Amino acid sequence: MFHVQRIVRASAGRRLTARGTASNAEAEKQNVSPVQRLHVSDALIKELPIERQSLTRGLAMDKFEKDFFIYPEHQDADDLRNIEGFVKVLRDSLQQSVDSGEIEKSGTLSEVVKLALDRNAIVSTLVPSAFQGLGFTNKDKIRVFEELSIDFSISSMMQATNSAVSLLIHFGSSEQKEKYLPRIVDGRCRPGFAYIEQGSQAPFAEIYGSGQQLLLEGKFKAVNPQSANLMFVFALKRDPVDNKPKLSCFLIDRNELDDGSKWDGKRDGTLGLKAFEYGDLSIRCSISDDALLGEEGRGRDVANELVASGRMPFAAAVSGFAKRLVDDLSTLCNQTPSTATENTVLASSSSVQRLLTHLSTKVYALEAVTYYLGGIIDENMPILVDIESALMHRLARETLKECVSAIVELSGSKGIEIGPRYEKWIRDISTLLAMNSEGNVTEEVAMSTLSSWAVTNYSHAKSSIQRFFKMASHEKQLANPKLKHFIAEHAHPSLQDAAQELEFTMSRVHAILDKLIAERGKNLEADYASMENLVRVLQNNLIMVAVISRATRSYSIGLRNSDLEIFFATQLCTRLSRSSWFELDALSNHFNLLKLNPSLLSAGRAVLEMGGYKIENPFERNW
Length: 623
Hints:
Blueprint: H1 24-30, H2 50-53, H3 55-60, H4 77-97, H5 100-106, H6 111-119, H7 122-125, H8 138-148, H9 152-171, H10 174-186, E1 191-194, E2 205-210, E3 213-223, E4 230-238, E5 245-253, E6 262-267, E7 278-287, E8 292-293, H11 299-309, H12 311-335, H13 350-378, H14 386-411, H15 420-435, H16 441-457, H17 464-479, H18 496-520, H19 528-556, H20 562-588, H21 596-600, H22 602-610
Pfam families: Acyl-CoA_dh_1, Acyl-CoA_dh_N
GO molecular function, one term: flavin adenine dinucleotide binding
Family: Belongs to the acyl-CoA dehydrogenase family.
């Protein structure tokens, strides 16, 4: 029998020194290594070069840090064996206990599933060892969530718990951590939180009164509105000085409410994720200063971290599900007779092969990025990962959409009879996409990159002659970028072309940002189409770095099917580099024939103003 206790990490000596993480002094006191926040703002360290602090920001400024091209891994072989043993036991346990049909029918997890999760100490893996948890690293938690995606209701429930733990670690006082984290481990505390999208103006609760006599009241959407006994609530309180409402986060302990308090939770019906509890919570209770999470008036920071902390578990769950889907579809295609060609199976169809090419390479990219990001957070590197986690979230959503497309395409036009599990998966994915919406990720990533670029590279206005020669330089850099970092020296020889394409894209992005900021400045904030173009290129860069470094490591140590990884990486980088070139071409607009980006939104705007599709029939006559 595999012992869960063997997984406890000896990683207390690892330190992340970037601002926005827990302080080292506090970490030493609590005997727990600092945990990286996934959403920070203005946290760059001036003393360090930008390329050593943020991968994406560095690439956008055409700066290269070779350490980012070393794919992270377990430094201790025992750690790797331990997590592999843990995951194997968990996988076997879930396969024996999880009946998705029964979960769908009952709308809740069965006692057998709950027992399996408890015996495998899943919640403990999310909590630091200083608070009676197992203190799993990010790499290890990714593997756990890949297995939990055997049913998205299970992974979504654990994702919510992980977010609650993250908020307590980053914003909770010492008393709040010591009180609630051990209770989460042993099951006495069941967390829930007000549902909020990053950047949204969702309905918030309100705080009335002053001093010690405070009343919190409100109705809002929440996760676990009925079953939770610890709720993270966002509430507005008017500042006594300027009378402006300020958002703060409060911990409401249901077990400590008095008789006059109100806690009325109502669960909503959803298209999928039938065992995941989501609905309305109407609450009214007295609170004290001890209930405040973090600083007063900093509720937006807590809300942003709440959203960001769910991105890695979400991406890991999507990666695990998508890999199983590829296996399932491959088996079906190899066993199902083709309706187009006699005595053949679907697997021989070129269209099926093309579809699975797109799906499998997308899954490979997501898996590479997720483990890459989790690994570099675990390393002793002073890094910011706010942009990278947002890009990973976009990629995970794209992968889910690709999964739905593959299911529909193969089960429909290719003659595979759709089974109940496919129908459930489509509904679960639809609900999962709604619950993990993109929000304002595009604006967040674009503006963070642009502001960092401007702070680092901005120069004051130049003369018209200087601008003319600068424009000519931009055109030359776009059309014929030069190699200066020689990234290919850090990759496998077979990936030379892929590494060079990445370097060319870095050079072009830097030139485009220089031109955009010089010509348009703050007006870029209102140009969503340009921001979308830029974010697509930044996402492509992140994928290329992850797959190049992953494939290089795999081939260098002789992993099974490493030659296929080289092929995957080459194909991905070729396709992504061409995509980036198209996006940058649209951004540069150097042909001056068409102002492309402003026109991209005009059709949608016109449809909204007219209230739908109001184009006349093509055979209509103007009598």
